[in-house]
Design a protein that fits this description.
heterodimer; A: 73% helix; B: mainly alpha; Four Helix Bundle (Hemerythrin (Met), subunit A)
Chain lengths: 102, 232
């Protein structure tokens, strides 16, 4: 329970807010540096970190019931399945057997 | 697991005027509202998820063209908008915080601040859209980028990038417009004293929605604006 102490939750909100701003700055700085493939990894890594901070603290999932947390996690799991399995097809198509008509 | 400030064991707590008859207590009512809102947000994740999947598929197909097309987006305006949206998420969180400490006027203040920041975001977005129309970067018959990298087949492929840009940011902006409308109603209801430390579920659920829209932008900004930014 974070909200028993209003001063403490206010401090947490401001800390998360500052972390998100720093993350935004870091996103731009990292993008302007040539890291090869790592550019995408870093960009997504920072974005996921920011999203997790928003979900846990601004959206109060840190203090919610497990059912709510599981529902939120389930949504993102299904998104990962959607993108992941789609890309397995696009990246791997033709790698094992030739694609008919090509 | 306890999730609210409501002391359900206090005498009379179960008789809060906002407690609907089909709930045992305020805490159960709040948990139901939160869970229901999250279920809606899961459908929103999948809704935007389809577009993110399309983005990944086409970026994988045309990586060079996507990087070249991305250079036509304004990183400064996009970055400012990211900061504006993060500020609006803070003010939204503080509106709920104000309800938790029973400060009616403070709720209204932070809701109005959130609406104002959301409007600034949409204003900057309008400037960006106008710039894209001005430079013929809107997919369709008038698409004619003044860029040697985006001619011929590459130009056609880059229309997919700009189509995704307009659909994804447009859908995001539509969510912001709806959110501003919802917050405006809540500001009026808050002013009338409808919400307090024991009952502010509409604020909580609207906050979840607002923060979700912020998260969508947190991903849109690097994925659309910053591809191959080091090569500029």
């Amino acid at each position: 329970m974070a909200h028993h102490d209003p001063k403490r939750s206010l401090l947490i909100y401001v800390a998360v807010f500052l972390a998100l701003l720093i993350g935004t700055g870091a996103t731009v700085v990292v993008a302007k540096t040539d890291l090869g493939v790592l550019n995408d990894v870093a960009a997504l890594g920072i974005a996921v970190t920011k999203a997790v901070l928003v979900i846990l603290f601004f959206m109060h999932v840190r203090y919610s019931t497990r059912l709510t947390a599981l529902t939120a996690l389930g949504g993102f799991l299904w998104l990962a399945i959607l993108i992941g399995i789609t890309m397995i097809d696009y990246v791997g198509r033709g790698a094992i057997m030739p694609v008919p008509g090509k | 697991m306890a999730s609210t400030t409501i002391d359900t064991h206090a005498p009379g707590a179960a008789h809060h005027p906002a407690l609907q008859h089909h709930f045992d207590n305020m805490e159960q009512q709040k948990e139901s509202a939160t869970l229901g809102m999250w279920l809606f947000l899961v459908t929103e994740i999948m809704f935007f998820g389809g577009l993110f999947t399309a983005y990944v598929v086409y970026r994988h197909a045309f990586p060079g063209v996507f990087a070249a097309a991305s250079h036509h987006l304004d990183v400064t305006l996009g970055g400012i908008n990211t900061a504006v949206l993060i500020c609006s998420s803070l003010t939204m969180a503080l509106a709920i915080w104000s309800a938790q400490i029973n400060r009616r006027k403070l709720i209204v203040f932070f809701l109005l601040a959130t609406i104002a920041l959301g409007s600034v975001f949409l204003g900057i977005k309008t400037v960006e859209y106008r710039d894209k129309f001005h430079h013929h970067l809107v997919p369709g018959t008038s698409f004619a980028p003044d860029d040697p990298h985006l001619q011929g087949v590459a130009g056609q492929q880059s229309q997919i990038f700009f189509a995704l840009y307009f659909i994804m940011t447009g859908l995001h902006a539509l969510h912001m417009i709806i959110g501003i409308g919802v917050l405006a109603v809540l500001a009026v209801l808050s002013w009338k004293g409808r919400y307090d430390a024991h009952y502010h579920n509409p604020l909580e659920c609207s906050g979840l929605y607002w923060h979700f829209v912020d998260i969508v932008w947190i991903f849109l900004f690097p994925l659309l604006y910053l591809i191959g930014a080091h090569a500029r």
